[in-house]
Amino acid sequence: xxxxxLAGDATTPRAGLLDLPHGTIETPAFMPVGTRGTVKALDADxxxxxxxxxxxxxxxxxxxxxxxxxVAAAGGLHAFTGWExxxxxxxxxxQAVSLxxxxxxxxxxxxxxxxxxxxxxxxxxxxxPEAAVEIQQALAPDVMMVLDQPLSxxxxxxxxxxxxxxxxxxxxxxxxAWSSPxxxxxxxxxxxxxxxxxxxxARAVRAxxxxxxxxxxLSLDEPPxxxxxxxxxxxxxxxxDKPRYLMGLGSQPELLAAVAAGCxxxxxxxxxxxxRTGTALVGPGRxxxxxxxxxxxxxxxxxxxxxxxxxxxTRAQLHFLHLRGELLAHRLLTIHNLxxxxxxxxxxxxxxxxGTFEAFAAARLAGAGRPASRPDAGSVAAAxxxx
Length: 387
Known about the structure:
Strand order of the largest sheet: 4-5-6-10-11-12-13-14
Radius of gyration: 20 Å
Largest sheet: 8 strands, parallel, barrel
Shape: globular
């Protein structure tokens, strides 16, 4: 792996190049989520046309089915899915820990050993740091993540410090278990919702010497201004010449705020989930395809958009397809929403290189009857307006 920062520094908007075995990623970049290796409703050709530099796959779900052995027997996740670009796998920690928080899951728990839970079939499983690495190495992605313990907002300082310390210990165990020359292993910063704990966690994970870092445990209902402060507390402590991946962000205000704080990579199920509910990302906001007023609307989803949905289909047709439950609606809206966010990141990158990111972010979030926010601390984290 090679990462080069072309513009910006530790806590300002950055444009870079991340070289991995399956291609070069121009950062900042959004990664579509392919939960089981496949982005819902899309195939590998759709993804190639959209052009993301990397796709995320969920190690937890692939562990449950078809199993890492089946993926390895197929030649790894690239061969299994037909995707020739870069792949990043998460550790499964978020999914396993979220199970442990559900009262309906009997006996689910987090300990220093790992996360113990019952899978949907009722089988007891223990996800240890070593198992998280073993699973991901069988999948053979380009980037894999350590096991971590996220907390939902609000979480007190004592719980956050305990979870961060456990995350640091697990990160060291993941390092010791890692042996794959084909996959880079990234550390993850936790620390709850206290900037001081976040900075301490960043320093602890940095001391372990990972080639890149995830920033976990954000976008979990914390206020936008706090999210930005926590992000800045982390990016100020990490080496500026290594990539930072803020995990789980997908809304436009969140993405632009995180770019402004010096983050490089992002992922979220949000754009694909919105597509399945009949919602399109348009301008600074959203368009609800269930609205009866769209039944005779001959316009594309978004004027000037170059995606397949906007080039060949109207709002009226997509309104009809969605109300009838046609699978084509899911596919076209997914293509549009991903194209929208991928284009946002490409435009943000161009603005960074041109030295105009603050103006770009303010203009991008202005509209839908709302005034532009000031392009300074916290301004691009304003609520995203629906259309």
